[in-house]
Automatic annotation (TrEMBL):
It comes from the Eukaryota. Keywords: Hydrolase, Protease, Serine protease, Signal. Transmembrane segments: none annotated. The keyword Protease applies. This is Uncharacterized protein. One of its GO terms (molecular function) is serine-type endopeptidase activity. Coiled coil: none annotated. Signal peptide: none annotated.
Length: 271
């Protein structure tokens, strides 16, 4: 069997437990042009079967909070079952290589435990923020994020978009008028001066953050800011998401918040 990537997966090749002779090849235009020719020449009764694998997950209704190692993770494995879980597979092994969210989840859970041990006063929201805003799971970075998006028992925002979450998702922005979102940062590090910047495709949006500079004098201090976004190209956001980020930095720490914006025709949403 020849397992070929499609265009979206490109050169990404990872281990698969095949139970028959197989090779895994990357994507090239030449190979797929040849495959297309064979497909056109083959009849419906042909024994030729072309197997492809696609790892692209389209995240429209929900967005991931964090990514963590989850491909080809070596783990302890029960010898009571075989690695493929097929009745005809008689192999056993004390270890296996497994991929998926089941492998990513314990990585994140372990980092959460380390952060709670290092910062027992941090709330679950602060821990989530520290992990999310320092990028693809980075334990050392999450240990010292400097700023976090925390949640308190204060009265919630009138607008759901103002919920103090580390990421910003606008599922149905109105191309006719700008939208302003409020967030609040809490200092969990040393006193410092942080500068904010909104990074979005310039021909699609105009965006700004006010104030552009936040000054923190002590641990626990909280400061609010507003992000204003206006659509310049309505067609670019129609029924699809466009991505960017909000970044705060003191040139030592980088607090990043992903931004996802769309104008979905099938969503009824009030600002």
């Amino acid at each position: 069997m020849i397992l070929s990537n499609n265009k979206t997966t490109g050169n990404e090749i990872y281990r698969v437990l095949h139970v028959l002779p197989a090779i895994h090849i990357n994507y090239t235009d030449e190979i797929h042009m040849h495959i297309s020719r064979v497909q056109r020449l083959s009849s419906e009764k042909s024994r030729l079967h072309l197997w492809q694998i696609s790892l692209l997950k389209i995240l429209i209704n929900s967005l991931p909070d964090i990514t963590a190692p989850g491909v080809d993770i070596i783990v302890a494995y029960s010898e009571a079952v075989n690695p493929t879980e097929e009745n005809y597979d008689k192999r056993t092994s004390p270890y296996n290589m497994i991929s998926g969210t089941s492998m990513s989840c314990p990585h994140v859970a372990g980092v959460v435990g380390l952060l709670k041990k290092a910062h027992p006063d941090w709330s679950p929201a602060a821990i989530r923020s520290a992990i999310m805003t320092t990028g693809h799971l980075r334990p050392n970075g999450a240990m010292d994020p400097d700023l976090v998006y925390d949640l308190t028992h204060q009265k919630g925002p009138n607008n759901l978009l103002d919920f103090n979450y580390p990421s910003i998702k606008i599922p149905n922005i109105s191309p006719s008028s700008p939208i302003t979102i409020t967030r609040r940062l809490k200092n969990v590090g040393a006193p410092g001066r942080h500068t904010g910047r909104v990074c979005l495709p310039p021909r699609i949006f105009s965006a700004s953050v006010k104030p552009r500079v936040l000054e923190f004098d002590h641990v626990g201090q909280e400061e609010s800011f507003n992000v204003t976004i206006k659509v310049l190209d309505a067609d670019a956001v129609k029924d699809t998401y466009v991505f960017g980020e909000l970044r705060w930095t003191d040139h030592v720490h980088y607090v990043r918040s992903p931004i996802a914006i769309a104008s979905m025709s099938d969503i009824s949403y009030k600002n």
